[in-house]
């Protein structure tokens, strides 16, 4: 018997393991392609955030720097300056921001949070950071006040006490105003939380304190006692001073305003109920809703302004929220679209002891920001230059296109100018602080957002800015129901039937394809001329699923036809005539058949310059079952073809000839002996087909889910694009849906004639990639007359999970853009339209009828990249051998995958459901980047995440905001230069002149030495248990954020070395300057000595 030797076995294993990763699958060493992208080219970090701050809760203004700050309920801060200058920050705790206070013209901001913490932000760097924090442990913060040019912050609490914080050191003062000392000793009731604190404009030593219970106290800071108390029987919401310091106004919970004289605490000087009905018998007006805030602003040459929010009468049911402006005898009620969160008045001076001269009001609404011009009649609003209308209708899909053609942005801007509303204020936007960044990034970027109301918005996203260019309303193509009762019974969603679901856009040809939730597709062309379309071209497609035998293992799948004219034609190339749908034919109370979900308008359509509809494609009901929603979409302007897919099959439309070219089930795309074909399982036997037709909805969403709107909560909680292999069921496995589509020019097999051929690649939910070759007629008139021949070629490869993306590389590994047609004016003369130029791609579309390119190809000269939810593979064409394979994830699944171009190379970029963002090299799929960025907590992220070229990506992080990020090391390094400056050196305006007599008799503003009163020497130390001081990270600019990994450490080290070298250089320069100065001094001293050595003392 031969002796077993374990050592030889181990040596063998070692040799095998060391040899496996040396070279990719099926590639000889001489054929290896040099991959230009390496791991050092990648780094992940957030860049900017656009849109309206989600769930705003606080507002602040720096009137000197002209900056605006908004805090939110999730602890975010957004700071706005001039258009294009904005910044996003986030509190680590995520607690709601209850109040913001600028250190006016100091480049700092104080934020108070609902978790009873106070933070000091440094705004003198491009990415603001927290310098200090103070966490209260025994009392809850309700109000903060920071006087202009003071370093002492007043903090009011729920218990009614007031504490003082030094904003320089963020330490508590021993000086405290206790509630029981502020109110009368005879009063036994607690006055409630502090709702207002402000100092007298003319006497800094007098502080007014408003308690929620209805008591206002004038506190003398020096004597540490209450000077006056003003009591009213209604709760107080806010207080505002007259600039002379002799009067103040309070707003109350019964909708009334009380004006008090500081010398007369017995009763208010005047009581006003702005929206209350005045009874004839002289009694109190009827109570109204609470006035949540009031501001009292004076003018030098006219009546004061009293501006308030709330206070409407209770009988105004259904009336929109209002801002009321009272000026003299006139009262203007300005209705708002959303509830008012807060408002601030913009004034000519930051000093509270001078005439305010208000000129505008900034109103923060729950979903909008409005600035009202007070200086013009009618109080018009300013045109808002910020991209805050992103959520005007909920965003349902998003596409990002970086480095697109240079002429597309000017073209969209020119047609978008005509859509601008009129009636805005003629003055410039008043918030104009900060400076733009100095970045050199100059390539054009466009973001397209699809919305629930059927509209699309095109945004210029170049140079980390965002500006709306053009808006397209797709709902104009359809008839609108006037009421819910008038809604057609064929609609498949309860609300938002026009919502956009998918986009396919060709920037070069400016052809746009849009798919909506009602199983409708619209094809648009861009024109600079206005046209009137008398009849909208319409194609109706009937996608029908037939089963000949439920128990048969070789079920063919969907037998699909075109409706209504070609229902008897067996040919998949049968065309549908572009006729108007007959909604009454074959339709009864119980069965809806051959009718679309939406009704195309029958009247003429006036189409302005911009995108104009060319063709409408609608899937129709089949035997009482609604059509399945579109799951994938692609368009190619060089071929004049559009392809769509859903859970039942695929359809190809020739939008030039207005015909349906192909209408097949997924199973019919396989060839008879296809090794990759999976036999579909039999559906549940409890459901018997009716009349030979299987229920078209079987295995998909239930009727309740189907009727949900894409903007409903259900959409955010369940990802229904058949991507997730982790939630598959028996029903979903019975049907192989279409999940990815791609037009291309590929190398055909020798058995198919070889050469370059136009083709369509189809990815399915079961991981198969199916191909079909396209035979195109010659360009010109023949293209419009001769049919296109499409021939299914079977499956090319199968991967784990649903197919997400397919792309192609040439023999050198360079990304191949699909062929496209250059844009031409569709409404121009016939001679000009014939001059069409095609460019891009491996080759122009084939001109011959056979569709084969130039002869046979001896060896593989093209790569196909296929990415699924689980894997990525690269195939060599035309042999279809696997060059490389990478298992991206085993425990999770990909939500988005794209082949992108970066630094003259191509890579696969992936976003995984577990939050990882990864990149893989091409063609050998080496991992280049893997960062745990953002766990999937909201399906909105999955639905809107979009990669683009040059290392750019974005997603909707909230219903109102877009977060942009980069995975490019070059962009990360240049980000600091691209970001704008928030703080700019501005001279503080001069204080108001006190005048000769006021200075002589002491009538001007009284100054208080707060340091002597509140400092440690005068007030002592505060108890340590009251609040904990937490030093902030606040420091190194640009190093805070999402930068991770080795490159981030290298960047930090590099910056530290640069700073050290800079300091050494400065020290060397100072030393050289001191030496020069010393030499000069020695020389002058020697000259003086020589000059004076022979003089007598009296000669000096």
Automatic annotation (TrEMBL):
Chain residue ranges for the region called Disordered: 264-288, 553-595, 673-732, 829-855
Subcellular location: Cell membrane; Cytoplasm
GO annotation terms (biological process): exocytosis; Golgi to plasma membrane transport; protein transport
KW Ligase (keyword) present: no
InterPro entries linked: Lethal2_giant, LLGL2, V_SNARE_CC, WD40/YVTN_repeat-like_dom_sf, WD40_repeat_dom_sf, WD40_rpt
Annotated Basic and acidic residues bias: 278-288, 703-718
Keyword check for Transport: yes
Membrane topology of the entry: Peripheral membrane protein
CC per GO annotation: plasma membrane; SNARE complex
Biased composition (Gly residues): 840-855
Pfam families attached to this UniProt entry: LLGL (PF08366), WD40 (PF00400)
Record field: compositional bias (Low complexity): 563-585, 719-729
Compositionally biased tracts (Polar residues): 264-273
Keywords assigned: Cell membrane, Coiled coil, Cytoplasm, Exocytosis, Membrane, Protein transport, Repeat, Transport, WD repeat
SUPFAM superfamilies assigned: SNARE fusion complex, WD40 repeat-like
Family (UniProt): Belongs to the WD repeat L(2)GL family.
UniProt protein name: Syntaxin-binding protein 5-like
């Amino acid at each position: 018997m031969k002796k077993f030797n374990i050592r030889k076995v181990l040596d063998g294993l070692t040799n095998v393991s060391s040899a496996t990763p040396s070279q990719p699958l099926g590639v000889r060493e001489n054929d290896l392609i040099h991959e230009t992208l390496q791991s050092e080219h990648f780094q992940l970090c957030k860049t900017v955030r656009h849109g309206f701050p989600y769930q705003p809760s606080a507002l602040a203004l720096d009137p000197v720097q002209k900056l605006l700050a908004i805090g939110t309920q999730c602890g975010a801060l957004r700071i706005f300056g001039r258009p294009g200058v904005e910044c996003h920050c986030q509190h680590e705790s995520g607690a709601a921001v209850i109040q913001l206070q600028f250190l006016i013209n100091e480049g700092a901001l104080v934020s108070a949070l609902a978790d009873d913490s106070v933070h000091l932000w440094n705004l003198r760097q491009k990415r603001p950071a927290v310098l200090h924090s103070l966490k209260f442990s025994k009392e809850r913060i309700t109000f903060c006040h920071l006087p202009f040019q003071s370093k002492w912050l007043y903090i009011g609490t729920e218990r009614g006490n007031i504490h003082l914080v030094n904003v320089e050191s963020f330490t508590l003062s021993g000086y405290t105003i206790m509630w029981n000392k502020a109110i009368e000793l005879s009063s036994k009731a607690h006055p409630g939380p502090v709702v207002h604190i402000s100092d007298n404009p003319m006497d800094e030593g007098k502080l007014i304190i408003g308690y929620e219970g209805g008591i206002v106290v004038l506190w003398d800071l020096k004597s540490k006692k209450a000077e006056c108390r003003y009591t009213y029987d209604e709760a107080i919401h806010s207080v505002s001073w007259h600039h002379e310091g002799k009067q103040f106004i309070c707003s109350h919970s019964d909708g009334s305003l009380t004006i008090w004289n500081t010398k007369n605490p017995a009763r208010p000087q005047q009581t006003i109920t702005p929206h209350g009905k005045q009874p004839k018998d002289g009694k109190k007006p009827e109570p109204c809703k609470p006035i949540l805030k009031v501001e009292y602003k004076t003018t030098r040459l006219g009546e004061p302004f009293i501006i308030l929010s709330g206070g409407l009468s209770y009988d105004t049911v259904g009336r929109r929220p209002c801002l009321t402006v009272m000026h003299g005898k006139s009262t203007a009620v300005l209705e708002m679209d959303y509830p008012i969160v807060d408002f601030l008045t913009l004034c000519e001076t930051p000093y509270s002891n001078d005439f305010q001269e208000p000129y505008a009001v900034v109103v923060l609404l729950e979903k909008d920001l409005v600035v009202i011009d007070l200086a013009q009649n009618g109080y018009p609003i300013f045109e808002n230059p910020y991209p805050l209308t992103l959520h005007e209708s909920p965003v349902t899909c998003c596409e990002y296109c970086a480095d697109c053609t240079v002429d597309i942005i000017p073209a969209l801007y020119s047609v978008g100018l005509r859509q601008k509303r009129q009636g805005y204020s003629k003055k410039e936007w008043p918030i104009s602080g900060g400076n733009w960044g100095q970045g050199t990034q100059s390539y054009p970027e466009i973001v397209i957002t699809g919305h629930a109301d059927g509209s699309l918005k095109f945004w210029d996203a170049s140079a980390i800015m965002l500006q709306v260019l053009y808006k397209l309303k797709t709902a104009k193509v359809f008839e609108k129901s006037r009421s819910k009762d008038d809604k057609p019974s064929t609609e498949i969603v309860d609300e938002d039937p026009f919502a956009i679901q998918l986009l396919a856009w060709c920037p070069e040809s400016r052809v746009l394809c849009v798919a909506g939730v009602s199983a409708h597709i619209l094809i648009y062309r861009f024109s600079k001329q206005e046209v009137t379309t008398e009849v909208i071209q319409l194609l109706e497609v009937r996608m029908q699923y037939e089963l000949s035998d439920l128990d048969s293992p070789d079920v063919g799948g969907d037998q699909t036809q075109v409706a209504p004219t070609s229902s008897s034609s067996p040919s998949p190339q049968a065309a549908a005539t572009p006729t108007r749908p007959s909604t009454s034919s074959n339709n009864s109370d119980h069965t809806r058949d051959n009718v679309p979900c939406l009704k195309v308008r029958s009247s003429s359509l006036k189409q302005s310059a911009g995108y104009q509809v060319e063709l409408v494609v609608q899937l129709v009901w089949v035997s009482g079952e609604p059509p399945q929603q579109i799951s994938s979409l692609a368009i190619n302007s060089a071929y004049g073809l559009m392809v769509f897919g859903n859970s039942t099959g695929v359809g190809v439309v020739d939008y030039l000839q207005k015909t349906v070219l192909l209408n097949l089930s997924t199973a019919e795309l396989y060839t008879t002996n296809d090794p990759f074909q999976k036999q579909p399982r039999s559906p549940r036997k409890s459901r018997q087909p009716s009349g030979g037709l299987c229920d078209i909805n079987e295995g998909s969403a239930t009727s309740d889910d189907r009727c949900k709107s894409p903007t409903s909560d259900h959409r955010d909680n369940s990802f229904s694009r058949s991507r997730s292999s982790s939630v598959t069921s028996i029903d979903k496995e019975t049907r192989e849906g279409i999940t990815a589509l791609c037009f291309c020019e590929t190398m055909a097999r020798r058995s198919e004639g070889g050469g370059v051929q136009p083709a369509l690649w189809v990815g399915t939910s079961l991981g198969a990639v199916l191909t079909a070759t396209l035979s195109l007629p010659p360009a010109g008139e023949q293209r419009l007359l001769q049919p296109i021949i499409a021939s299914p070629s079977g499956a090319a490869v199968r991967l784990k999970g649903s197919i997400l993306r397919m792309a192609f590389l040439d023999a050198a590994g360079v990304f191949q853009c699909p062929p496209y047609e250059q844009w031409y004016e569709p409404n121009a003369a016939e001679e000009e339209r014939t001059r069409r130029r095609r460019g891009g791609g491996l080759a122009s579309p084939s001109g011959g009828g056979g569709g084969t390119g130039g002869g046979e190809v001896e060896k593989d000269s093209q790569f196909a990249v296929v990415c699924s939810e689980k894997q990525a593979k690269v195939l060599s064409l035309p042999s279809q051998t696997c060059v490389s394979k990478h298992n991206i994830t085993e425990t999770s699944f990909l939500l988005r995958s794209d082949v992108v171009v970066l630094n003259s190379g191509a890579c696969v970029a992936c976003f995984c459901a577990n939050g990882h963002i990864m990149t893989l090299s091409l063609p050998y799929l080496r991992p280049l980047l893997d960062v745990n960025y953002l766990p999937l907590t909201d399906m909105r992220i999955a639905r809107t995440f979009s990669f683009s070229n040059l290392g750019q990506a974005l997603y909707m992080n909230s219903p109102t905001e877009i977060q942009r990020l980069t995975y490019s090391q070059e962009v990360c390094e240049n980000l600091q230069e691209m970001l704008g400056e928030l703080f700019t050196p501005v001279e503080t305006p001069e204080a108001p002149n006190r005048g000769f007599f006021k200075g002589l008799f002491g009538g001007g503003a009284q100054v208080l030495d707060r340091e002597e009163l509140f400092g440690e020497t005068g007030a002592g130390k505060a108890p340590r248990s009251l609040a904990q001081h937490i030093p902030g990270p606040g420091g190194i600019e640009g190093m805070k954020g999402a930068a991770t990994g080795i490159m981030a450490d290298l960047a930090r080290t590099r910056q530290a070395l640069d700073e050290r070298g800079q300091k050494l250089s400065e020290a060397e320069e100072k030393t050289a300057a001191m030496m020069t100065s010393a030499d000069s001094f020695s020389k002058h001293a020697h000259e003086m000595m020589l000059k004076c050595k022979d003089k007598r003392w009296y000669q000096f």
